[in-house]
Design goal:
homotetramer; 206 residues; mainly alpha; Arc Repressor Mutant, subunit A; DNA-binding
DNA sequence: CATGAATGAGTTTTCATTCAT
DNA sequence: AATGAATGAAAACTCATTCAT
């Protein structure tokens, strides 16, 4: 067996472990996750975990990382298409919401996580987030585009982007927590949310 | 008299247990909460819990209930003061945020709780929330006041109120999760948040 | 309140406790019996038990004693009626079985109990049981009557009585353990049992 | 080889656990059996039980199964030898009693057990037991042999076999419960028991 | 690479019992 | 006479982890 293949297999098993862990977390919450449950499902011995990870914490870290990347990947494919700034903002906000709702467990896990090494990636409220956080950075650009020709400080642009983000975040979290909201109501809420945000910007503009 | 006093003492110990539990949850999350930890701190035997509560679940229920009431009480003292609708909205939103930030652990515990009997009290997104949820109901009144003289459907008013709420909720949650944000930045964010909300409403009006 | 009345009340509560205990044992077996369960049912505090009994063991002892007496009382009313020895044996055996089956839990509890102070009353196999155990004593008389005019040693009479007793005991225990035996089958078994016993005696006689 | 050996060792420890459990049950009754007691004796940690059994219930099940098999094995080696039906019955009854008395704890445990899945194997009183229960079946054959040339219904044969069984069972149980009966008295009782049974049959015959 | 054996520390819960009042 | 408070000891069970093989 070539080294490559071994490496591949190793990576495969790591993924198998992490994916199984993810499934358990999705079904039973982070509390429901145990080494034994994982290895029972994948038909390995509990000790196998310690071959591929230092301990449970490291495994969870890697799981979080993966989820984080999954989210970032999905999100980064979003803020790009249309040329009209208003439509751009509308489209991308809607897309952002929809993507988040397609992976509710991962989104919650990551975005409500309070551990420092996750927050390193997910915090958005600090002064200067527009350069350190892609999400806010892109939003800033859209907002800036939007206000082309108007006098508005970079600081205010950043704050605006941050609050567009937090308000959208708030809607997403509630939509996830309050499961069982009918599709129609969901759509109404999302559309109204976008309307209000655009209104907020429009006014200042005029 | 003696009976009264006993009842009082009983209530005291119940509170002692619940408060200690609350502290542990705040520090270590709900998973970190164990009967042993509680009784070690308050220097009682584990069995005492079962003197005052049926089981751990009942204790947690009571804890949640208490937190829920604490939040409701604090919140209900909010939406009332000024007569100008715009100022009323500004004031009350600010007050709401501040109160939530004064009891971050309780707020998170309750508002991110996904158990059905908590959601019975905390869900706000369903169609008709304006009559079943005080918070949304009060917000609706303010919004209605705001649009006096304009044609706007009750449905849209409710949606608007719901989204003011979720956006504010989003900001609060992020402010709690991203602990260590400097006071100035905090204030900037809060003020800008309120500004954007008001803007959103203003535009439609004009 | 007169001393008598107090004594009465005391006796009443003792009985209340013991009867409740008996009910629990009947429903959940001796393992299911706990102080708390008793006092929950009779609406007293657990500590009350220690007012009326030294400890749980003493209470169980008293319960056993009561059951034992109940059985003895019921049984002693049995071996007496008819004058024909054969019919006497038939009648009384049948009556004995039926009485035992009317209080299966108590019968099992007592008769299968291996503690010395119960065995003091319930053992029947020792040499000399005919004078020390009423049940065997009465059986001996019937058997003796039966063999009137035949040469048969007292020792053999006692042995015979003991084995009539153990065989009947065996049937009773199985009838209790194998609950759900249809009434008809029950009757067939009981009648055949009596038939065989009588046969056993008859033969030697002729 | 290595696998075989491991399986062997596994079986050894399982047996160690079960045998220890059996000893405890023998001494203190089924209530006295606890995981801790077992593992204290065999000098393992309590958790080891869950390595080899799903839970306590499974372990007890296995213990019962083993006892049941032990009894069945011993018993099945019994009803076979002599050609004379009378002697056959005498021999086998005596052998049955002796075997039961050689493993009193196991016999009691199994034969007085009231759980359905044990009763599935141990019940003997139902109509039709002669075809479903080996013990009764074999007894039926002996009884039938005995009555060769006489008119007797199959039903009566079965009933007779059942009552030979229950009466023997009754004697065995009492001999176990009333420990400390001198050997001579034991023998007298056993012999008289067999005599009475044979008498019962003989009479009808003549 | 993978595992079976084993465990220490922990979990919630139940129990019989004591004692001051 | 009766109890509420309190507990030590024990119950069954789970978990993350280690280690020799």
């Amino acid at each position: 067996m070539s080294k490559e293949r071994q490496a591949l297999k190793q990576e495969e098993i790591k993924n198998l472990i992490i994916n199984t862990a993810q499934e358990i977390v999705a079904k039973e919450g982070i509390n429901g996750l145990s080494i034994r449950k994982i290895t029972n499902i994948i038909d390995y011995s509990p000790a196998i975990i310690y071959h591929y990870f230092k301990d449970k914490d490291e495994m969870i870290s890697k799981l979080m990382e993966k989820n984080y990347k999954k989210i970032i990947d999905a999100m980064s494919s979003v803020y790009s298409t249309n040329s009209e700034p208003e439509q751009k903002l509308k489209d991308s906000t809607k897309a952002y919401i929809e993507i988040a709702l397609q992976m509710p467990d991962e989104y919650m896990n990551i975005m409500l996580n309070t551990s420092d090494n996750i927050l390193e990636h997910t915090s958005v409220l600090f002064n200067g987030a527009s350069v350190k956080r892609q999400a806010i950075g892109v939003l800033c650009k859209v907002v800036k585009d939007y206000y082309k020709g108007f006098t508005i400080s970079d600081a205010e642009i950043e704050l605006t982007a941050q609050l567009i983000w937090t308000s959208t975040f708030g809607l997403i979290i509630r939509l996830i927590i309050e499961k069982n909201i009918p599709q129609e109501q969901r759509n109404n809420l999302i559309n109204q949310h976008i309307k209000i945000i655009i209104n907020g910007l429009l006014h200042t503009k005029s």
